[in-house]
């Protein structure tokens, strides 16, 4: 009954009211460097999680996959709570727990009733500080991960993006896959995993984030109680100094004519997280949009490239992306097409890039900005998205950037800015290309490189 009453009392709000009525994000740094951040709302549930600046970018060729392996073992029991006891305790709360590893971040989070926040924090602290890493569980999860790697090979979109990183950042840590190699997974030992945790799970590199019906003061008090044992390192040692992952214009082609469709990704070097150019590039990506044959609208879609794709049957789908890391990124597009449509799709896609650099219109920019605003407000749906947003902002920007500030940045973008910034990153740049499947029709690299500029009089 209480939940139904909360839903019924929820009134409609305008976009401006939504931006102004967002609860303040409160941040407290504990003595050991752990940052505790929360956003309180009138929700009966809360999401609490630990985000750590650790991922495949912090690995080398010998231990690549260690972070992903540790993630698999995180909820399999701790030194205080054996696996069955841990699972029973979580189930008694009716909680939902999850974890993920990316190239620069590792996360463990739990969604539960707000009243159970203290117990959730205790469980997370136990996972981060006392993961058992039992030999029996390691061998069991080794088999699970090896099976996952086989399944991932059948997801050609993921394969294409892994190849794109491998060629764009070849010879650097960003070229590593998150999951690691089959050889590494087979030979990683308990000592390797324990060493990874000991090196990277440091308090100054962690954010304990929470969103929902919780009190920040209570969260801080509980964090002091359970996270005080997380090792402290001096500020200059808190995050390892990573060498700049230099972008390389190059390509990887994995031709397999037995596959029905080709997956092709093309990207140039993009900016890091904190670079203000990101907002303009996101507007540019929104102008190009995305497409799938299952979408309605056909030839009447607002995206010019989507209209061409529908009208001329160019591809099955395409998407744009702007993937950022701490000091670099990948800005590009990915498409899936029939073998005989590759050249036409690539020609039209690169043509749209050139049009962004030379003739973007104000009407396109206005539409794209509205799309970004909608996506931005959608981040407020659910405590889990808000919690993740809080933590990632603190790790990537050093602070939580309010939606009002994001809105102001988006509003400041105009067509001239899009043309200028796109020219800076796209025009006459050497791209990285990854192609998988029946790709015989994909032109050679020099031809694709020559389409990165227009001869203008």
From TrEMBL:
Domain Peptidase M16 N-terminal: 35-181
One GO MF term: metal ion binding
Principal place of residence: mitochondrion
Domain of life: Eukaryota
Domain called Peptidase M16 C-terminal: residue spans: 188-371
Membrane topology type: Peripheral membrane protein
Pfam families referenced in this protein's UniProt entry, alphabetically: Peptidase_M16, Peptidase_M16_C
Record keywords, A-Z: Acetylation, Electron transport, Membrane, Mitochondrion, Mitochondrion inner membrane, Phosphoprotein, Respiratory chain, Transit peptide, Transport
This protein's name: Cytochrome b-c1 complex subunit 1, mitochondrial
Family (UniProt): Belongs to the peptidase M16 family. UQCRC1/QCR1 subfamily.
Any one Gene Ontology cellular component term annotated for this protein: mitochondrial inner membrane
InterPro entries: Metalloenz_LuxS/M16, MPP/UQCRC_Complex, Pept_M16_N, Peptidase_M16_C
Source organism per UniProt: Grallaria varia (variegated antpitta)
Subunit details: Component of the ubiquinol-cytochrome c oxidoreductase (cytochrome b-c1 complex, complex III, CIII), a multisubunit enzyme composed of 11 subunits. The complex is composed of 3 respiratory subunits cytochrome b, cytochrome c1 and Rieske protein UQCRFS1, 2 core protein subunits UQCRC1/QCR1 and UQCRC2/QCR2, and 6 low-molecular weight protein subunits UQCRH/QCR6, UQCRB/QCR7, UQCRQ/QCR8, UQCR10/QCR9, UQCR11/QCR10 and subunit 9, the cleavage product of Rieske protein UQCRFS1.
Localization, UniProt: Mitochondrion inner membrane
Keyword Ribosomal protein in annotation: no
């Amino acid at each position: 009954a209480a939940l139904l009453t909360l839903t019924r009392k929820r009134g409609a709000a305008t976009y401006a009211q939504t931006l102004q009525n967002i609860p303040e994000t409160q941040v407290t740094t504990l003595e050991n460097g752990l940052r505790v951040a929360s956003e309180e709302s009138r929700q009966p549930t809360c999401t609490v999680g630990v985000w750590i600046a650790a991922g495949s970018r912090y690995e080398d060729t010998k231990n690549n996959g260690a972070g992903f392996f540790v993630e698999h073992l995180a909820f399999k029991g701790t030194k205080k709570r054996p696996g069955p006891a841990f699972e029973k305790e979580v189930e008694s709360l009716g909680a939902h727990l999850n974890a993920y590893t990316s190239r620069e971040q590792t996360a463990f989070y739990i969604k539960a009733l707000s009243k159970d926040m203290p117990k959730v924090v205790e469980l997370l602290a136990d996972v981060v500080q006392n993961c058992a890493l039992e030999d029996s569980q390691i061998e069991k999860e080794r088999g699970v991960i090896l099976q996952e790697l086989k399944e991932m090979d059948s997801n050609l979109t993921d394969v294409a993006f892994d190849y794109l990183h491998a060629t764009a950042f070849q010879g650097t840590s960003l070229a590593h896959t998150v999951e690691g190699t089959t050889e590494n997974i087979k030979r990683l030992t308990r000592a390797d995993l324990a060493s990874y945790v000991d090196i990277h799970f440091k308090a100054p590199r962690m954010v304990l984030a929470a969103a929902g019906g919780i009190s920040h003061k209570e969260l801080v008090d509980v964090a002091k109680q359970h996270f005080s044992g997380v090792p402290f390192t001096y500020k200059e040692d808190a995050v390892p100094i990573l060498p700049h992952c230099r972008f390389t214009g190059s390509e990887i082609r994995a031709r397999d004519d037995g596959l029905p469709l080709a997956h092709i990704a093309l990207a140039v070097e993009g900016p890091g997280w904190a670079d203000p150019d990101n907002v303009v590039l996101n507007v540019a990506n929104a102008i190009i949009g995305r497409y799938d044959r299952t979408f309605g609208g056909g030839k009447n879609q607002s995206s010019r490239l989507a209209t061409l794709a529908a009208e001329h049957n160019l591809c099955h789908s395409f998407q744009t992306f702007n993937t950022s890391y701490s000091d670099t990124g990948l800005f590009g597009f990915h498409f899936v097409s029939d073998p005989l449509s590759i050249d036409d799709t690539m020609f039209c896609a690169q043509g749209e890039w050139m049009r962004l650099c030379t003739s973007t219109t104000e009407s396109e920019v206005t539409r794209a900005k509205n799309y970004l605003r909608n996506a931005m407000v959608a981040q407020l749906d659910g405590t889990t998205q808000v919690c993740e947003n809080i933590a990632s902002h603190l790790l990537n920007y050093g602070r939580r950037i309010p939606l009002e500030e994001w809105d102001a940045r988006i509003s400041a973008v105009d067509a001239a800015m899009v043309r200028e910034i796109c020219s800076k990153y796209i025009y006459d740049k050497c791209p990285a290309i990854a192609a998988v499947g029946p790709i015989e029709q994909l032109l050679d690299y020099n031809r694709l490189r020559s389409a990165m500029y227009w001869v203008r009089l």
